[in-house]
Amino acid sequence: MSKIRITKQFSFETGHALYGYDGKCKNVHGHSYKLSVTVIGTPISDPTNVKYGMVIDFSDLKKIVKTEIVDVFDHATVFNKNTPHVELAKELSDRDHNVLLVDYQPTSEMMVIDFAEKIKKHLPETIQLSALRLQETDSSFAEWFASDN
Ligand SMILES: Nc1nc2c(c(=O)[nH]1)N=C([C@H](O)[C@H](O)COP(=O)(O)OP(=O)(O)OP(=O)(O)O)CN2
Prior knowledge:
Elements: E1 4-16, E2 29-41, H1 58-73, E3 76-80, H2 85-94, E4 99-102, H3 108-120, E5 128-137, E6 140-145
Parallel strand pairs: 1-3, 3-4
Antiparallel strand pairs: 1-2, 2-5, 5-6
The structure holds the ligand Nc1nc2c(c(=O)[nH]1)N=C([C@H](O)[C@H](O)COP(=O)(O)OP(=O)(O)OP(=O)(O)O)CN2.
Organism: Gelidibacter salicanalis
Protein name: 6-carboxy-5,6,7,8-tetrahydropterin synthase
InterPro entries: 6-PTP_synth/QueD, 6-PTP_synth/QueD_sf
């Protein structure tokens, strides 16, 4: 049976700031992120299986990505916890804002690496993460490919 890639797309609204960056993105700002998740596997060939013909049920893939990424990042503001932004993060958290501290600079590149690790941990053994595309603006995106890593 052929190997097939399937993709599901997600969107979420997230704030961030790039501490130490030499441009306008050092300021706290937000993006309507778009995330495409591509997995690869063999469609189930057993006609008695309720998932017959599927690599993975799109809704099962959705549950993983929603739990691990969308529900965590949506309407949160992400700061690098290794920078003085940690003080701003504490102030906002104390005022009941949804703040997410990560141990990396929250660029598209670093977020997509983080997302790849999070998704890989939750996929069934028969399915592999093939690619991720994280779109930050209409003209800017970062991609992760299994074949590169
Ligand atoms: N390699 C990266 N460069 C930049 C990132 C990033 O994650 N990786 N992020 C930013 C900012 O977050 C910025 O909001 C997005 O940058 P940019 O595409 O330059 O946004 P603009 O809307 O200004 O771009 P247009 O060309 O006007 O569409 C900066 N760099």
